[in-house]
Amino acid sequence: MTRIAIDAMGGDNAPRAIVEGAVWACMEYGIPIELVGKLYDIERELDRIDQEGIVASIGGSLFPTKRIKVNTKTLDIKKTQASEVIEMGEAPGQAIRKKKNSSIVLAVNAVVTGSADAVVAAGSTGAAMGASLFGLGRLRGIERPAIATVLPTMKGPLVLIDSGANTDCTPSMLYQFGLMGSIYAKSIFGIENPRVALLNIGEEEGKGDELAKETYKLFDENKDNINFIGNAEGKEIFLGNCDVIVCDGFVGNVTLKTIEGVAKMLFYMIKQEFYHDLFSKIVGLLVKPVLKRIYLKINYEEFGGALLLGVKGITVICHGRSSAYAIKNAVKVAYNAVKSGINESIASCYGEK
Amino acid sequence: MTRIAIDAMGGDNAPRAIVEGAVWACMEYGIPIELVGKLYDIERELDRIDQEGIVASIGGSLFPTKRIKVNTKTLDIKKTQASEVIEMGEAPGQAIRKKKNSSIVLAVNAVVTGSADAVVAAGSTGAAMGASLFGLGRLRGIERPAIATVLPTMKGPLVLIDSGANTDCTPSMLYQFGLMGSIYAKSIFGIENPRVALLNIGEEEGKGDELAKETYKLFDENKDNINFIGNAEGKEIFLGNCDVIVCDGFVGNVTLKTIEGVAKMLFYMIKQEFYHDLFSKIVGLLVKPVLKRIYLKINYEEFGGALLLGVKGITVICHGRSSAYAIKNAVKVAYNAVKSGINESIASCYGEK
To answer: Which of B249, B257, B290 lies nearest to residue A273, judging by beta carbons?
Structure first.
């Protein structure tokens, strides 16, 4: 039985969206849950859900709100008290040492003690990483854990690694990110020989900053271990010609948030244009189902959360603004990651069988 | 009289689109032109234009093709022979030293000798930068020239600097980029006290890699000289809450190309969806004018090209895929930059009056 521990207090919409998403996942997929947080808040949310049901809707104003009735008493949901919460502004390293009874530290602890098998967290990314690294430890041979985010492309899913865990990297760190990303693409998406590319400012060898040039060489020397296909520029991310894109966490995070920003601006512009005049308004009504289909294809909520790779356990890091729908999908991501044996595969690269 | 020199041989669509764009600018704005390249090719294009007219259309399949008749003999167009061309794959530093008669080197030389006042180039960015730096020299006090690209936002234009000239940067370089970007926003867009932000992975001070942390401090210490408003994340680029975003050329280039990639994917998806079924096809026809308006707002061709700031002269660097329309606008950008006295303003920051 695979149980997923969830930091019920983390995220902009916590505890409401988190508890709803967890209940939804438990109900829809039958995945056992452990909610970690202030028991009073958790109980209150569960009571509310028993009365009102859960808002089982996809985010975005394009979609109608739908309510599903639930009896949470019939679901396999453990509740664990955590008296403290790490806030977004706090320095992660300090906070996890000081707040030993915080929801994120105790959620990770649930995995350490074997009460749960994976953690889902939508609060401070730094705190989730720190707690995981501190509580679970690194996989043997791994220099630094990295965050692997899944992006939609014109063809299939793409793993972007590192998307924010490490700002200052070395070539050997980036090489390991490539290996871990490759194992991710294989274990989770079933891609046989994942194509790994280095995010760079030109396609030719010799392009880029010092880090990129050195990393290129390292990948090139290790082509027996990894299907390295060379450099990829930002505009190629979405063509679907590679399965894994490697970069340092600074570039990865800027890239990820830029993508979010562009998509948001375009949807904003489309909406604005449909209020332009009466004709546009009428067309706007007709165009709604088309926009919905596109929204679903690029909606980050579909992937739920990003995996922290390189630690001895499964931690799924969610967007701070996660909706219940995103949390539901993140629980599924965590569950699938546990089942995939991804960490065993990573460990076996470094001699652990 | 301000004359603009153009590398007629640079770019994916050269010499055709380049010559057409130059002729178009000369005709529409009355800006005198100097076409630099293989005379045989230039003459052939001009003859063709005299017979067929120019394809005066905005790029993108959403727009109809329109032809305008021109008699190039009546326009103020100088032609300068350049027997060599620097190709995209060549190492820029080596190429500009070896090919002294290349179109880009001679186009820059036209500014050096006073035959022209600015250069427009759509070929190898590295070669255009190298030729400008070598031929024109740096402005006094400037460590490294940087590329300033203009992006559309939800509110107004935004200057992204550096968008690709310098891959490995120091805090003092980034600080200068901020100063130059600020002067750009003021000189060209008339923004009185441009808001300058540092591209980073979080808003709080202390976020980011070592470079970002040190640069933040430097900006903060110099608030008397620059309207530094703090860090900006990738998702904030398009909100229009700042006028200048500073980053190193690696991050800037990845960001720029990512934006291009996302926009392309979304337009691709929108198109695909309108072929989904008969109903969608009909809606697609109705929606065309709306998509056109959005396309125009985000079309990179509107801004024509990016300015290389920090050299003693005006160099406008265009997208390799530039259409005639983009080149026409780039000529206008170059012309306006000359008229704005932007270099005098930058130089005066460092004591030159």
So the answer is: B290
